[in-house]
Amino acid sequence: QLQLHESGPGLVKPSETLSLTCTVSGGSISTDNYYWGWLRQPPENGLEWLGNVYYGGSTYYNPSLKSRVTISVDKSKNQFSLKLTSVTAADTAFYYCARGPYAVRGAAYFDFWGQGTLVTVSS
Amino acid sequence: DIVMTQSPDSLAVSLGERATINCKSSQSVLYSSNNKNFLAWYQQKPGQPPKLLIYWASIRESGVPDRFSGSGSGTDFTLTISSLQAEDVAVYYCQQCYSTPLTFGGGTKVEIK
Protein backbone atom coordinates (compact mmCIF):
# COMPACT_ATOMS: atom_id res chain seq x y z
CA GLN A 1 0.00 0.00 0.00
CA LEU A 2 1.38 3.38 -0.99
CA GLN A 3 2.17 5.69 1.92
CA LEU A 4 3.32 9.29 2.01
CA HIS A 5 4.87 10.99 5.02
CA GLU A 6 5.64 14.67 5.48
CA SER A 7 8.58 15.76 7.61
CA GLY A 8 10.17 19.05 8.55
CA PRO A 9 10.17 21.81 11.17
CA GLY A 10 6.87 22.60 12.81
CA LEU A 11 7.87 26.17 13.58
CA VAL A 12 9.36 28.69 11.15
CA LYS A 13 10.20 32.33 11.83
CA PRO A 14 8.68 35.10 9.70
CA SER A 15 10.71 35.96 6.58
CA GLU A 16 12.51 32.61 6.70
CA THR A 17 12.12 29.58 4.40
CA LEU A 18 9.73 26.72 5.09
CA SER A 19 11.19 23.38 4.00
CA LEU A 20 9.30 20.08 4.00
CA THR A 21 10.05 16.65 2.60
CA CYS A 22 7.61 13.94 1.56
CA THR A 23 8.87 10.37 1.71
CA VAL A 24 7.03 7.88 -0.48
CA SER A 25 6.94 4.21 0.56
CA GLY A 26 5.20 1.19 -0.88
CA GLY A 27 5.75 2.42 -4.42
CA SER A 28 8.17 4.28 -6.65
CA ILE A 29 8.08 8.01 -7.22
CA SER A 30 9.52 7.30 -10.67
CA THR A 31 6.28 5.95 -12.09
CA ASP A 32 4.91 7.16 -15.39
CA ASN A 33 1.68 9.17 -15.37
CA TYR A 34 1.82 10.18 -11.71
CA TYR A 35 2.45 13.67 -10.42
CA TRP A 36 3.34 14.43 -6.82
CA GLY A 37 1.83 17.44 -5.16
CA TRP A 38 1.89 19.75 -2.17
CA LEU A 39 -1.28 21.26 -0.72
CA ARG A 40 -2.05 23.17 2.44
CA GLN A 41 -4.97 23.94 4.71
CA PRO A 42 -5.00 26.70 7.31
CA PRO A 43 -6.64 25.47 10.53
CA GLU A 44 -10.43 25.45 10.21
CA ASN A 45 -10.16 26.54 6.59
CA GLY A 46 -10.23 25.25 3.02
CA LEU A 47 -7.69 23.57 0.77
CA GLU A 48 -5.08 25.31 -1.38
CA TRP A 49 -2.93 23.63 -4.01
CA LEU A 50 0.72 24.74 -3.98
CA GLY A 51 2.23 22.80 -6.86
CA ASN A 52 3.00 19.48 -8.55
CA VAL A 53 6.18 17.79 -9.69
CA TYR A 54 6.83 14.89 -12.06
CA TYR A 55 9.70 12.50 -11.46
CA GLY A 56 11.31 13.78 -14.62
CA GLY A 57 11.48 17.24 -13.05
CA SER A 58 8.52 19.06 -14.66
CA THR A 59 6.80 21.37 -12.22
CA TYR A 60 3.57 23.33 -12.03
CA TYR A 61 3.02 25.99 -9.36
CA ASN A 62 0.16 28.07 -8.06
CA PRO A 63 0.76 31.62 -9.33
CA SER A 64 -0.85 33.00 -6.16
CA LEU A 65 2.36 32.18 -4.31
CA LYS A 66 4.24 34.66 -6.48
CA SER A 67 7.36 32.59 -7.15
CA ARG A 68 7.95 31.85 -3.44
CA VAL A 69 7.49 28.11 -3.95
CA THR A 70 9.89 25.49 -5.31
CA ILE A 71 9.15 21.77 -5.52
CA SER A 72 11.85 19.25 -6.35
CA VAL A 73 12.19 15.49 -6.54
CA ASP A 74 14.94 13.16 -5.34
CA LYS A 75 14.43 9.88 -7.15
CA SER A 76 17.28 8.15 -5.33
CA LYS A 77 15.56 8.71 -1.98
CA ASN A 78 11.99 8.33 -3.28
CA GLN A 79 11.24 11.79 -1.92
CA PHE A 80 9.99 15.14 -3.09
CA SER A 81 10.36 18.44 -1.31
CA LEU A 82 8.73 21.83 -0.84
CA LYS A 83 10.44 25.14 -0.20
CA LEU A 84 8.42 28.26 0.53
CA THR A 85 10.40 31.45 0.99
CA SER A 86 9.67 34.67 2.88
CA VAL A 87 6.95 33.14 5.02
CA THR A 88 4.45 35.14 7.05
CA ALA A 89 1.76 34.21 9.56
CA ALA A 90 -0.58 33.68 6.60
CA ASP A 91 1.49 30.61 5.68
CA THR A 92 0.55 28.86 8.94
CA ALA A 93 -1.26 25.71 7.87
CA PHE A 94 -1.37 21.96 7.72
CA TYR A 95 0.82 20.95 4.79
CA TYR A 96 -0.02 17.79 2.87
CA CYS A 97 1.82 15.85 0.20
CA ALA A 98 -0.22 13.74 -2.19
CA ARG A 99 -0.11 11.65 -5.37
CA GLY A 100 -1.86 12.79 -8.51
CA PRO A 101 -2.67 10.20 -11.17
CA TYR A 102 -3.57 10.77 -14.80
CA ALA A 103 -2.45 14.36 -14.78
CA VAL A 104 -2.95 16.49 -17.88
CA ARG A 105 -0.43 19.33 -18.05
CA GLY A 106 0.12 18.94 -14.32
CA ALA A 107 -3.56 19.03 -13.39
CA ALA A 108 -4.66 16.04 -11.34
CA TYR A 109 -6.89 14.85 -8.58
CA PHE A 110 -5.16 13.24 -5.57
CA ASP A 111 -5.70 9.63 -4.58
CA PHE A 112 -3.13 9.14 -1.80
CA TRP A 113 -2.37 11.74 0.87
CA GLY A 114 0.08 12.04 3.72
CA GLN A 115 -1.30 12.62 7.20
CA GLY A 116 -0.22 16.24 7.07
CA THR A 117 2.09 18.32 9.20
CA LEU A 118 1.25 21.58 10.96
CA VAL A 119 3.68 24.38 10.25
CA THR A 120 3.35 27.50 12.36
CA VAL A 121 4.99 30.75 11.35
CA SER A 122 5.85 32.73 14.44
CA SER A 123 8.79 34.52 16.01
CA ASP B 1 -8.33 30.50 -12.45
CA ILE B 2 -11.40 28.26 -12.29
CA VAL B 3 -13.53 29.22 -9.28
CA MET B 4 -15.35 26.36 -7.57
CA THR B 5 -18.50 27.24 -5.63
CA GLN B 6 -20.14 24.72 -3.32
CA SER B 7 -23.59 24.82 -1.79
CA PRO B 8 -24.83 24.64 0.83
CA ASP B 9 -22.09 25.55 3.31
CA SER B 10 -23.58 23.04 5.72
CA LEU B 11 -26.51 20.67 5.96
CA ALA B 12 -28.07 18.45 8.59
CA VAL B 13 -29.65 15.22 7.45
CA SER B 14 -31.36 12.45 9.40
CA LEU B 15 -29.73 9.05 9.50
CA GLY B 16 -30.80 7.01 6.49
CA GLU B 17 -31.89 10.05 4.52
CA ARG B 18 -30.34 11.52 1.36
CA ALA B 19 -27.72 14.25 1.41
CA THR B 20 -27.04 16.31 -1.71
CA ILE B 21 -24.10 18.66 -2.20
CA ASN B 22 -23.69 20.92 -5.20
CA CYS B 23 -20.56 22.22 -6.88
CA LYS B 24 -20.38 24.75 -9.69
CA SER B 25 -17.29 25.65 -11.70
CA SER B 26 -16.77 29.06 -13.29
CA GLN B 27 -15.95 27.39 -16.60
CA SER B 28 -16.51 23.95 -18.08
CA VAL B 29 -14.24 21.15 -16.85
CA LEU B 30 -15.31 18.78 -19.61
CA TYR B 31 -12.46 17.61 -21.83
CA SER B 32 -13.86 17.24 -25.33
CA SER B 33 -11.00 14.94 -26.38
CA ASN B 34 -12.07 12.14 -24.02
CA ASN B 35 -15.51 13.33 -22.87
CA LYS B 36 -14.43 13.23 -19.22
CA ASN B 37 -15.32 15.81 -16.61
CA PHE B 38 -12.21 16.65 -14.60
CA LEU B 39 -13.94 17.00 -11.25
CA ALA B 40 -13.19 15.17 -7.99
CA TRP B 41 -14.91 14.90 -4.61
CA TYR B 42 -13.22 14.42 -1.24
CA GLN B 43 -14.36 13.66 2.29
CA GLN B 44 -12.43 15.10 5.23
CA LYS B 45 -12.99 14.08 8.83
CA PRO B 46 -11.50 16.03 11.76
CA GLY B 47 -7.79 15.47 12.19
CA GLN B 48 -7.48 13.55 8.93
CA PRO B 49 -6.34 14.37 5.40
CA PRO B 50 -8.92 14.52 2.63
CA LYS B 51 -9.98 11.17 1.22
CA LEU B 52 -10.76 10.78 -2.47
CA LEU B 53 -14.35 9.62 -3.03
CA ILE B 54 -15.12 10.33 -6.68
CA TYR B 55 -13.01 11.27 -9.72
CA TRP B 56 -13.92 12.22 -13.27
CA ALA B 57 -17.21 13.44 -11.75
CA SER B 58 -18.80 10.02 -11.38
CA ILE B 59 -16.19 7.28 -10.92
CA ARG B 60 -16.17 5.94 -7.40
CA GLU B 61 -12.70 5.36 -5.97
CA SER B 62 -11.93 1.79 -4.96
CA GLY B 63 -13.30 0.93 -1.52
CA VAL B 64 -15.77 3.83 -1.37
CA PRO B 65 -19.28 2.68 -0.37
CA ASP B 66 -21.82 2.72 -3.15
CA ARG B 67 -24.09 5.08 -1.21
CA PHE B 68 -21.76 7.81 -2.50
CA SER B 69 -22.38 8.87 -6.09
CA GLY B 70 -21.34 11.75 -8.30
CA SER B 71 -23.14 13.27 -11.24
CA GLY B 72 -23.14 16.28 -13.51
CA SER B 73 -21.28 17.62 -16.49
CA GLY B 74 -19.73 20.81 -17.78
CA THR B 75 -20.06 23.29 -14.91
CA ASP B 76 -22.64 21.76 -12.55
CA PHE B 77 -21.98 18.75 -10.36
CA THR B 78 -23.59 16.92 -7.46
CA LEU B 79 -22.37 14.56 -4.76
CA THR B 80 -25.14 12.42 -3.32
CA ILE B 81 -25.07 10.29 -0.20
CA SER B 82 -28.08 8.08 -0.71
CA SER B 83 -28.55 6.96 2.90
CA LEU B 84 -26.57 8.96 5.44
CA GLN B 85 -24.63 6.97 8.00
CA ALA B 86 -23.10 8.26 11.23
CA GLU B 87 -19.60 7.77 9.83
CA ASP B 88 -20.39 10.13 6.93
CA VAL B 89 -20.25 13.19 9.19
CA ALA B 90 -17.46 15.21 7.60
CA VAL B 91 -16.64 18.14 5.36
CA TYR B 92 -16.89 17.44 1.63
CA TYR B 93 -14.88 19.28 -1.02
CA CYS B 94 -15.02 19.36 -4.80
CA GLN B 95 -11.88 20.01 -6.85
CA GLN B 96 -11.37 20.77 -10.50
CA CYS B 97 -8.46 18.89 -12.10
CA TYR B 98 -8.99 20.42 -15.55
CA SER B 99 -6.25 23.02 -15.40
CA THR B 100 -3.70 24.56 -13.09
CA PRO B 101 -3.92 26.23 -10.69
CA LEU B 102 -5.95 23.38 -9.21
CA THR B 103 -8.81 24.80 -7.16
CA PHE B 104 -11.21 23.53 -4.53
CA GLY B 105 -14.69 24.45 -3.43
CA GLY B 106 -15.09 26.01 0.00
CA GLY B 107 -16.43 22.81 1.53
CA THR B 108 -19.80 21.55 2.79
CA LYS B 109 -20.15 20.36 6.36
CA VAL B 110 -22.52 17.41 6.73
CA GLU B 111 -24.03 16.71 10.14
CA ILE B 112 -26.69 14.45 11.61
CA LYS B 113 -30.09 16.03 12.25
How would you characterize the overall build of this protein?
The complex is a heterodimer of chains A (123) and B (113). Chain A is an all-beta fold. Chain A contains no helices and eleven strands. The mean pLDDT of chain A is 95. Chain B has strands spanning 4-7, 10-13, 19-25, 30-31, 36-37, 39-44, 51-55, 59-60, 68-73, 76-81, 90-96, 103-104, 108-112. Chain B is globular, with a radius of gyration of 13 Å. The relative contact order of chain B is 0.34.
Short description:
The complex is a heterodimer of chains A (123) and B (113). With 123 residues, chain A is mainly beta.
Helices, strands, pairings?
The complex is a heterodimer of chains A (123) and B (113).
Chain A: E1 3-7, E2 11-12, E3 18-25, E4 34-41, E5 48-54, E6 59-61, E7 69-74, E8 79-84, E9 93-101, E10 112-113, E11 117-121
Parallel strand pairs in A: 2-11
Antiparallel strand pairs in A: 1-3, 3-8, 4-5, 4-9, 5-6, 7-8, 9-10, 9-11
Chain B: E1 4-7, E2 10-13, E3 19-25, E4 30-31, E5 36-37, E6 39-44, E7 51-55, E8 59-60, E9 68-73, E10 76-81, E11 90-96, E12 103-104, E13 108-112
Parallel strand pairs in B: 2-13
Antiparallel strand pairs in B: 1-3, 3-10, 4-5, 6-7, 6-11, 7-8, 9-10, 11-12, 11-13
Features:
A: 123 residues, mainly beta, seven-stranded mixed beta sheet, four-stranded antiparallel beta sheet, 11 strands, B: 113 residues
Low-confidence stretches of chain A: none
Largest sheet of chain B: 7 strands, mixed
Determine the number of helices of chain B (DSSP H or I, runs of at least 4 residues).
0
Given the structure, what is the number of helices of chain A? 0
Q: Helix fraction of chain B?
A: under 10%
Tell me which protein chains meet in the greatest interface and how many residues each side has: A-B, 26 and 23 residues
> Mean pLDDT across all residues of chain B, rounded?
97
What best-fitting shape of chain B do the alpha-carbon axes yield? globular
